[in-house]
Design brief:
InterPro entries: AfsR-DnrI-RedD_regulator, BTAD, TPR-like_helical_dom_sf. The chain is mainly alpha-helical. The chain has 3 domains: about 5-65; about 70-140, no CATH class; about 155-215, no CATH class. Helices cover about 60% and strands about 5% of the residues. The protein has 11 helices and 3 strands, in the order H-E-H-H-E-E-H-H-H-H-H-H-H-H. It has a 3-stranded antiparallel β-sheet with strand order 1-3-2. Helix 4 (about 75-80) crosses helix 6 and helix 6 (about 110-135) packs parallel to helix 8. The N and C termini lie far apart (about 95 Å).
Length: about 230
């Protein structure tokens, strides 16, 4: 039995809030153009639809609502990873799908979604970079590369994500790929922002791209001596 669109909005609203929310706040956010009485009635009707679901989706406690913790939600997975200590072990043999997905609730234009979307983007970026470093330390360069590439896709101008890729190419014994990645980022940031890469990333490949002295022409020297 699919969740109807109105109930989807309520469930998404509760999922995006780490703490229980009051019924009044939920009604006000989800039905902003309605009177308080009408918004409360809409909330009650929507809750009734969710309560009929085969599995528990919403929990109530007094005047507050929360998404049921038995529900599997990508946002919660990302949030949990973001709060783990940096030296924590890798989450498993695969990258959690919520980190590799696209934008949060694409196509939704509600104000409360827009506010959470940028938060989720920043959390994803930091978590992807953190996981990339964990995988690299664990010796899994494939997943380290996969998570770093995902971070670049989320924000193509993020230097720390490009720097992670350069470091991974060097660790994998591919200096040409490291230089190619650096040149790609340098061209992008110059074109889009008019800036040069920082010394933190430039220094990684400086010894590989430093200009070498041009070979001296023997014939030219011979002519100059005559």
């Amino acid at each position: 039995m699919p969740v109807v669109p109105g109930a989807q909005r309520l469930l998404a609203y509760l999922v995006l809030h780490a703490e229980p929310v009051s019924r009044a706040a939920a009604a006000r956010s989800l039905w902003p153009g309605a009177t308080p009485t009408r918004a409360s009635a809409c909330l009650r009707s929507t809750l009734w639809r969710l309560m009929k679901w085969q599995l528990p989706l919403v929990t109530t406690a007094g005047d507050t609502l929360a998404a049921h913790r038995a529900v599997s939600v990508d946002v919660w997975t990302v949030r949990a990873l973001a709060h783990e200590p940096c030296d924590h072990g890798i989450p498993g043999p695969e990258v959690p799908s919520g980190l590799l997905g696209g934008e949060l609730l694409p196509g939704w234009d509600e104000p409360w979604v827009a506010q959470e979307r940028e938060w989720f983007r920043q959390v994803r970026l930091r978590t992807l970079e953190m996981l990339s470093e964990r995988y690299r330390r664990a010796g899994d360069l494939y997943l380290a590369h996969k998570t770093a590439v995902a971070a670049v896709r989320v924000d193509p101008l993020r230097e720390s994500a490009h720097r992670a890729l350069v470091e991974l190419h060097l660790a994998d014994g591919n200096p040409a790929e490291a230089v190619r990645q650096f040149h790609h980022y340098r061209a992008l940031v110059r074109r889009e922002l008019g800036l040069d890469p920082s010394p933190a990333i430039s220094g990684l490949v400086h010894h590989l791209v430093a200009e070498r002295p041009r070979p001296v022409s023997v014939a030219g020297n011979a002519r100059s001596l005559n």
